[in-house]
Amino acid sequence: MAHVPKRDYYDRLGLSRNASDDEIKKAFRKLARQYHPDLQTGEQQKKTAEDKFKEINEAHEVLSDQQRRKHYDMFGHAGEQRGVGGGFEGFDFGRGGFGDAFNDIFEDFFGGGSRGRHRAERGSDLLYNLELSFEEAVYGKEAKLRIPRWERCADCKGTGARSSAGIKTCPSCKGSGQLRFQQGFFSLSRPCTHCAGSGQIISDPCGTCRGRKRVHGERTLSVNIPAGIETGMRLRLANEGEEGEQGGPPGDLYVAVTVKPHPVFTRQGNDIVCEVPISFVTAALGGKVEVPTLTGSTVVKVPPGTQYGKVLRLRDLGVPSLRGHRQGDQLLHLQIHIPTKLTPKQKELLTAYAKECGMSMDAEEDGFFDKMKSFFE
After folding, report:
1. Distance between CA 182 and CA 251 in Å, rounded?
2. Which residues contact 185 (CB under 8 A, 6 or more apart)?
């Protein structure tokens, strides 16, 4: 069988011969994700991808090593065959190379992984439930919040040890924070259980935080509650959550708002609704009625002949708009009050009114029941 010459390493990665180390790394990772055997479907596709994967790994192993790349540039594949390197078969699973590449790919595809030694971790977000009165939600306020949270220990500055001498390299993972396991074709890693992935052991813990690097404290914050906020809304205070670990940024604080119900007013969008009872005399003849608002009472005019459920509008006495639009109104829902008890004089006057209008209670009752009978026949 004729000898098939090996393909140029730069060509395998799609690079020029003056490619930088960063360009080599990026090209390798891109192709590794594309041809990873575990990401293929079907036996033939897996076999083809595995062969391709071996080729790009061999190219990356040589070109990512400065000394081996220098020999390859000078002698080509002959330099590799002279003992400078050994291709895929000589690939070091325990130090960089394919093991790290697999973890890189795992992180890219599954959003996880735990490669980094002393990886900086963002602090946890916190949620604070704030209850406001109806008036506070409408007009806004400055609220003082007392937030319990974990904070970096000030005594040890977050190291967890009394001094730098109390921090030792983890003997299990040798400071890497990872324990590696060989499973067939792959080298897998997981966080070291001895040091929790930090790579360090605290031999002389801080007396304040006892090696936890954080202490439980309480912080008082002033929060500006905007006018017009309502139940279900959240305010985000960036970097006011818990402290991050290993130098990571703090989390955020979310303030969830609940507005207590008002005994008189309700809210519909940016309008404030109020039910106003009026007498049937006022409804019939018209008149003036004193009504409550959030800024005090005011007098409104009820037109004659007002029907049950009529709505009167007080302009700009509603809720301010969070988006800078026009302020809402106050809506007065008029409810005609019918007295349940009448004095003899009141009955006499109402009876006279009925006669004046040609109304007969008996006739009205008979007419109603006649209509009901015809309905059911």
Report:
1. 36
2. 37
- CATH number for 193: 2.10.230.10
pLDDT tens digit sequence for 349-373: 888 888 888 876 665 545 555 655 5
- Residue 209 falls within a domain, yes or no? yes
Write out pLDDT tens, residues 154-186. Answer: 888 888 888 888 888 888 888 888 887 765 556
Kindly provide the b/e burial profile for residues 90-120, where b requires at least 16 CB atoms within 10 angstroms of the residue's own CB: ebeeeeebbbebbbbbbeeeeeebbbbbebe
What are the pLDDT digits (tens) for 297-350?
999 999 999 998 899 999 999 999 998 888 999 999 999 988 888 899 988 888
Identity of the residue numbered 313:
R
Q: Please indicate, yes or no, whether residues 40 and 146 belong to a single structural domain of this protein.
A: no
Q: Is residue 117 part of a domain?
A: no
Q: Are 266 and 292 in contact (CB under 8 A)?
A: no
Count up the domains in the chain and report the number.
4
Q: Do 132 and 251 have their domain in common?
A: yes
Same domain, 368 and 269: no
CA distance 368 to 94: 96
pLDDT at 30: 85
In 3D space, the residue among 301, 305, 298 whose CA is nearest the CA of residue 281 turns out to be: 305
Q: What is the CA radius of gyration of the chain?
A: 40
pTM as predicted: 0.56
Distances (CA, A) of 56 to 30, 64, 112, 312: 10, 12, 24, 78
**Is the pLDDT reported for residue 108 higher than 60?**
no
Q: Does 4 fall in a domain?
A: no
- Per the structure, the complete domain to which residue 204 belongs is given by 126-259
Cβ-count burial 328-362 (b if 16+ within 10 Å, e if not): bbbbbebebeeeeeeeeeeeeeeeeeeeeeeeeee
Closest-CA residue to 247 (of 114, 117, 115): 117
Greatest Cα pair distance in the chain: 126
User: Quick check: is 1 in a domain?
Assistant: no
Of 189-198, 208-217, 237-246, give the lowest mean pLDDT range: 189-198
Kindly state whether residues 172 and 254 are assigned to the same domain. yes
